[in-house]
Amino acid sequence: MSEPATDGRLMRVDLRLIADMVEPHTRVLDIGCGEGELLDHLNQTKLVDGRGIELSMAGVRSAVAQGMSVIQGDADTDLKDYPSGAFDYVILSQTLQATRDPKGVLTHMLRIGRRAIVSFPNFGHWRVRWSLLRHGRMPNTENLSYQWYDTPNIHLCTILDFTDLCRSLGITVERAVSLDAEGRVRYDAGGLLANWLGEQAVFLLKRG
Q1: Fewer beta carbons within 10 angstroms: which end of the chain, N or C?
Q2: What is the CATH number of domain 2-207?
Q3: Burial call 63-90: b when 16+ CB within 10 Å, e when fewer
C-alpha cells in the first residue's frame, strides 16, 4: 500500500515511515535501493548525502539516470568493504529476509552506520499462521507473494525472531512499529500483539 509522502508523491508506507526516521543533512546508505525511490525522496526532502547499493543492474541504471549515486552490489558480500562509521543511517527495506547471512548483514550495517533502519514482512502474522494450519502449504500473501519454489526470501522471520536477534547482538531498538494489512501503523512492534497482528515491521536500531 502507498500513501502520499511529504512532497505529495505516492510512496510505500514502510518507506514513508523510514523517511520519517531519518534526520535532515545526514549521510545515508540505502541497501537494495531498487530504482532509488527512497533515496530520491530523502535527497529532496531531507537534503541528505544519499548513496545506494542495488543488486539489479536495471535498478542501478534507472537510479543513476535520475542523478542518484548508486552502485551495483550485494549486501551479503560487499558491506565488509565499507569503512566503519561512514554513514549516519544504513537502510535495508524489505530485503533482510532475502539475504544469505541476515546476522552478518545486520552486524555490518551497525558497524558502517551510527543507526540502522530495517523493515521486513512478519511471518508470525495470524493470516500466515492460519494459512499454513488450514492448507498445509507455504502461505501466499500480499507481502509474501512468491511461491515457495521461486521466492527470493530464504530467511523468513517473525517480529519476535528479529527482536531476539537484536538482543543477542547487543543492538538497541530505538523505535519499532508494525503495520496492519491495510498498511496503517497500528502497534508497537516490541509487543506480542504486533507479532500476531502486524503484517510488516519497521525498526530503528543503534549499537548498544
Answers
A1: C
A2: 3.40.50.150
A3: bbeeebebeebebbeebeebeeeebbbb
